[in-house]
Amino acid sequence: MSDSAERQLIDLVSREQRGLKHILIAGITTLVLVVMMSAGLGVYYYVVAEDLSVKSERLTADSDRLEKHAFTMRRDIDQQNNRVAAQEAAIRRAYDEMRQMYAGSAGGESSGKVLPAVVGYLERGRHSLADERLIEIRSARPGKNTEGALLKGAAGLLAWERSGVQIKKGDTGLPDQLKSAQASFNAALADPALRTLAQTGLAWISFIDASSPRSSYTLADCQAVEAMVGQIGSDDELGLQPLYWRAQCNRKLGRTREALSDYSLALNRVDPAADDTPDPAEQTIQMNAFHGLGTVLITTADLPTDAGIDSARALAERVCGAGDAGNGSHLMKLTRACLDKAIALRVALGQTENQQSGSAENKGFTYLRDSDFEGAFNHAKYIEKTGLFAWNELVRALSAEQVGDVEIAREARRNVSMFPPEGFNACELKALMTPEVYENARSIISSEHDDMDVTCR
């Protein structure tokens, strides 16, 4: 090869190397720029993501607040409507009683009438306007005798009932009105002739506390109610109200046999004359007894029959009827018949649809017991239209998951999370449900309350 050709080749190689070098430098520069841009975009996206996350959390928190507000508002509206309906019924009763008083059918405040009025009030819940006036006038008389103390206690309970105040969750100790009534009843215990009535008044105050939102029928408070009722006397000496108080506590604690016995005794002790001249207070206890009997009957599905259970079921068939002709077991039909009796009494008392569902919601457990999840689902959807109830939302969630309605299951679970966990009464739920369904229910309540332990203690 000539020198000229060699130089040309060398020049060509040199140019190619320089071009390759430029390309490498440009590539590296581009790569560095891409890396820097990627880092910049990464930082940008991180900042944007953090901002979006904060905004998303705020939106979620705002959404949660709005949902809770809507939930609370709906419950408040229902409760307000219930109070208005109760006030309207009370006004109508007061008007009727005043007409009778002015017509001369109600007598004066003779000493012979005041103790029967107290007996009717403490043992059966009866309190006409004339009785209230008589008790309050006589309780205001000076003196510190035991009868005066008993009347002051009864007057204190009447004032508490009229006030509409509740012992709220988180309250400590009894309200002053109930403390004063409690002290008066304690003073009346000194008189053997008045001891039974005074003890009944003390048991009533104990039940007011146990059934309040502060307690929600805790074991300790229900044991206090049972002890107070036990001090009144034997079962034969108990009035209609003490039997109901004890039955309620036994039912809430899952004591099936004891609750059945008490509800049966209470229904057998309802005044037969009430059908002709129904007293609202006694009608209310009768309604609660049908409600309790129907609910407790569900729990007997797990128990071997014996004389006590057989007699309670026989009583239920006698006072409630055989039940509907639809599908399901005979026992669950009987249960629904008793709950329907309670609903009918709620209607007679002028209660709202929301209040009627206080008994109607329990029918959902009868469908679960028969593994009729479609029936439970349809019933729970109907009840939800009348109001929000802890048990119904739980049944709605359970049955919706079984029938595959994901949206309603999610909505019902959300509502479950907004009820306080103690409001579900785990012991009563355990008795009302089959073991498998109960475990699912426990799981739902727990998961919707930060995985808290939900057990019957």
Explained architecture:
This protein has 457 residues and is mostly helical. The chain has a domain at 108-221. It has 19 helices and no strands. The termini are far apart. Residues 105-111 have low confidence and may be disordered.
Short description:
By secondary structure, the chain is an all-alpha fold.
Secondary structure elements and pairings:
Layout: H1 3-102, H2 111-124, H3 129-139, H4 146-163, H5 176-188, H6 195-210, H7 219-232, H8 240-252, H9 256-268, H10 280-299, H11 307-320, H12 330-348, H13 353-360, H14 363-369, H15 373-386, H16 390-403, H17 406-418, H18 426-432, H19 435-447
Shape designation: elongated
Subunit arrangement of the protein: single chain
Which stretches are poorly predicted, pLDDT < 50 over at least 5 residues? 105-111
Give the ordered list of helices and strands.
Answer: HHHHHHHHHHHHHHHHHHH
Features:
457 residues; 75% helix; elongated
